[in-house]
Specification:
Shape: globular
Distance between the termini: 56 Å
Oligomer: single chain
Order of helices and strands: EEEHEHEHEHEHEHEHHHEHHHEE
Helix content: 25-40%
Strand order of the largest sheet: 9-8-7-6-5-4-3-10
Number of strands: 12
Low-confidence stretches: 347-355
Strand content: 5-15%
Number of helices: 12
């Protein structure tokens, strides 16, 4: 599969690449990331390979990421209508302004206009709420987003990093009131972070939203760069974001990634990305790239075909502890379907045996 094997995003007709290019590293305004020229080269290569889906945010590198993308398109890097440009609102870029961020009508409308200016475009293909603003009624946010769509400034909308119950509330409001519905959710998902499998991913699948995982390599922890052998010696640029995850469980996962990568003639990063992209509900995985080499290595994940035993081994090593009532529901399902088998083996997780016919009340 290549970047030009486009997939529809949620219950929409919007066609996007299976790997989305994340632009959080465009610009060095945060003290790390890519120079402007290198960022544009990465954009050009992604487009050359058939990619059309680019994700950024008003907050990324203090707005510079959006500006780099806008300049790339203006300078002829790609036709605007060939790209699906996604950006986010929520972050406050104006110190001291209480309405400079959040999800109120005032703040998100202003943020949209500023993003349009930096991106040098008159519309945003996909506008994400970057995080839930618990100070603003969700009705206000959804109606304001619908107004932006009706005004032609935004084509589609989605939520990032928002609880399942709040996202569900927003989606049902939109459906019942005839407002623009959410077509996707952007959530952290990787072999290290799988708790989203409890509610967020099932919610998205049930309510017509595509899933766009971010940090599928957990900030580089699953890239293969960090191993048991160099534990403690590595000094990642993102510091504790990576080192805090380098525990026994993670090293078990990394060992398996290296083993599978060796068997398949690819890289641990490509295997980790293939695992995420192959999960139910996932539409387009967001890959980051600070260098051209990282881009090429990550895109290679689309060519990796994991066998069932590879997936099972990674699933087992990375199995998450899911919140209530996920565990109880799994046991209850076993009880309700007594006599069924799981992978050919009798299912006996539920601690109680079903009553026989003569024991029933």
């Amino acid at each position: 599969m290549g970047l030009d094997r486009y997939v529809t995003l949620g219950d929409s007709g919007l066609r996007v690449s299976p790997f989305c290019l994340g632009a959080m590293t465009f610009g060095k305004d945060w003290g790390w990331g890519s120079e402007v020229a290198a960022s544009k080269e990465i954009l050009a290569r992604y487009v050359e390979l058939g990619g059309n889906f680019i994700d950024t945010a008003n907050a990324y590198t203090k707005g510079h990421s959006e500006a780099i993308i806008g300049d790339f398109v203006r300078d002829g890097g790609s036709r605007r209508d060939r790209l699906v440009i996604a950006t986010k609102f929520f972050a406050n870029l104006y110190r001291g302004d209480p309405n400079g961020g959040g999800a109120s009508r005032k703040s998100l409308t202003a943020a949209c206009d500023e993003s349009l200016r930096r991106l040098r475009t008159d519309y945003i293909d996909l506008y994400w709420m970057h995080a839930w603003d618990w100070l603003t009624p969700i009705e206000e946010t959804m109606r304001a987003l619908d107004d932006l769509v009706r005004a032609g400034k935004v084509r589609y909308i989605g939520f990032s990093d928002t609880p399942a119950w709040k996202t569900t509330q927003a989606q049902m409001l939109a459906r019942f009131r005839g407002w623009t519905p959410l077509v996707a959710v952007q959530i952290e998902y990787s072999l290290i972070e799988r708790t989203v499998e409890a509610e967020l991913i099932p919610m998205a699948r049930a309510l017509g939203m595509g899933v766009a995982p971010w940090s599928p390599l957990r900030g580089g922890a699953l890239s293969g760069k960090y191993t048991r052998e160099n534990a403690g010696a590595a000094r990642p640029g993102r510091g504790s974001r990576v080192t805090d995850d380098l525990d026994a469980r993670t090293f078990d996962i990394i060992d398996e990634l290296i083993r599978i990568a060796t068997e398949l003639g690819t890289t641990p990063a490509a295997v980790a990305l293939a695992w995420v992209q192959g999960k139910p509900g996932v539409t387009s995985t967001i890959i980051g790239a600070r260098t051209m080499e990282q881009l090429e290595q990550n895109v290679a994940g689309l060519d990796v075909q994991l066998a069932a035993e590879h997936v099972q081994a990674l699933d087992r090593l990375s199995a998450p502890v899911l919140p209530f009532p996920s565990g109880m529901m799994q046991r209850a399902s076993t009880f309700l379907h007594a006599g069924a088998t799981v992978n050919g083996e009798p299912s006996s997780v539920w601690p109680l045996s079903p009553a026989s016919d003569d024991e029933r009340y």
